[in-house]
Amino acid sequence: MTARLNNAYSYAPESIAAMMALETSFGHSGLEHGLMELVKMRASQINGCAFCLHMHATDARAHGETEMRLYLLDAWRESSLYSPRERAALGWTEALTRLAETGAPDADYAPVAELFSPAEQVSLTLLIGSINVWNRLQVGFRSPHPVAARAAA
């Protein structure tokens, strides 16, 4: 894979700063760090973003996430390792990441409405939108993940 732009962030510093401010706001949203990393990883799996998967798997592990939960994330519906709140967030992540296909159905929203406060629902939805933007930047510009970048050097 050949990168399309080197340091795409340098071409839109104000926009990247706004995205980083949004990311910072999630730390004050009431959403659990582990839940946020699972959401970011699941969207990144769907979008095929190696850069983001590398980043968020590394961060999740550093914050105590287990290897087994990371391995089974793609099959979360068939696993008992995820809490009801995580399952609701993952279903909403899939629905919004595949929005053109799903239309964000009531069946995916209902558990979110039940288990998240209105403010958390908005933060979760913004988090999902944000990771999808990051995925599009990384995949669109073919940004190599750190291990691949070191190997290519």
Can you offer a commentary on this structure?
69% of the residues lie in helices and 0% in strands. It has 153 residues and is mostly helical. Helix 2 crosses helix 8 and helix 5 (84-97) packs antiparallel against helix 7 (106-115). It has helices spanning 13-26, 33-47, 50-62, 67-71, 84-97, 99-102, 106-115, 118-140, 146-152. The protein contains nine helices and no strands. The chain is globular.
Task: List the keywords.
153 residues, 9 helices, mainly alpha, single chain, globular
Count of beta strands: 0
Question: Gyration radius, to the nearest Å?
Answer: 16 Å
Name the average pLDDT.
93
- Tertiary shape: globular
Order of helices and strands: HHHHHHHHH
Regions with little confidence, pLDDT below 50 for 5+ residues = none
Largest sheet: none
Roughly how much helix do the residues carry, as a percent range? 55-70%
Q: Strand pairing plus helix content: what structural class? A: mainly alpha
Fraction of residues in β-strands: under 5%
* Termini Cα gap: 13 Å
Helical segment count? 9
Quick recap:
With 153 residues, this protein is mainly alpha-helical.
Give the arrangement of secondary structure elements.
Layout: H1 13-26, H2 33-47, H3 50-62, H4 67-71, H5 84-97, H6 99-102, H7 106-115, H8 118-140, H9 146-152
Helix pairs in contact: 1-8, 2-3, 2-5, 2-8, 5-7, 5-8
